[in-house]
């Protein structure tokens, strides 16, 4: 159980760094902020790249499962940052994606 | 062209001007809805290559003892990944889920090709279920939207 909580925590931490880093680069290029934003975004993305290496599974499985977490995280990010409430089907789709993540990543082999 | 003016305030060494001219040139070809969709999907695949590739270089450094140059290379590629979504047309909140789906498929393929780890049954079932979720997010017809 602890393993599941730790790896889920790592997945969502990775998503925070990925979306956060991407957002900083976006601010630099699309919102005309200074290059410091771009550099900070690049560093944040590099840290994002380190986080999945703490997972136990092989590369393909770690990244594929992370893709499912990313879908959910994008909707949460949209809700918190862009104040865009997910509609019913986005919530249902996100839950189904999470089921897929659990089967892929947490089925005991 | 108004975008050119928007970018002129903090034009870091001409990087922004260069990028925005590239974006205008690319978007001028995206005239129909269908072409726009292709353009968007190609950008997502490019983003996936940079993101998974950058992550893979850092993975090689930390998990497979590949040495620091791999980590630096990975960091640069991940930075490039961050630039790719800025080429997306502004209105793309829901297609981000599509990127999630593309990402899942590309990750499995990447691991298969470069790490020789073929997906097992549960990987495939899980991936299919994730794609079902993505399809619902993206393709489920909404009342408030006009189907074109």
What does it look like?
The complex is a heterodimer of chains A (109) and B (148). With 109 residues, chain A is an all-alpha fold. Helices cover 79% and strands 0% of the residues of chain A. Chain A is built from four helices and no strands. The longest helix of chain A is centred in the N-terminal third of the chain and has 29 residues, at 2-30. By secondary structure, chain B is mainly alpha-helical. Helix content of chain B is 70%, strand content 0%. Chain B has six helices and no strands. In chain B, helix 3 packs antiparallel against helix 4 (68-83), helix 3 packs across helix 5 and helix 5 packs antiparallel against helix 6 (121-139). The mean pLDDT of chain B is 85. At the A-B interface, helix 1, helix 2, helix 3 and helix 4 of A face helix 2, helix 3, helix 4, helix 5 and helix 6 of B.
Describe what is shown at a glance:
The complex is a heterodimer of chains A (109) and B (148). With 109 residues, chain A is mainly alpha-helical.
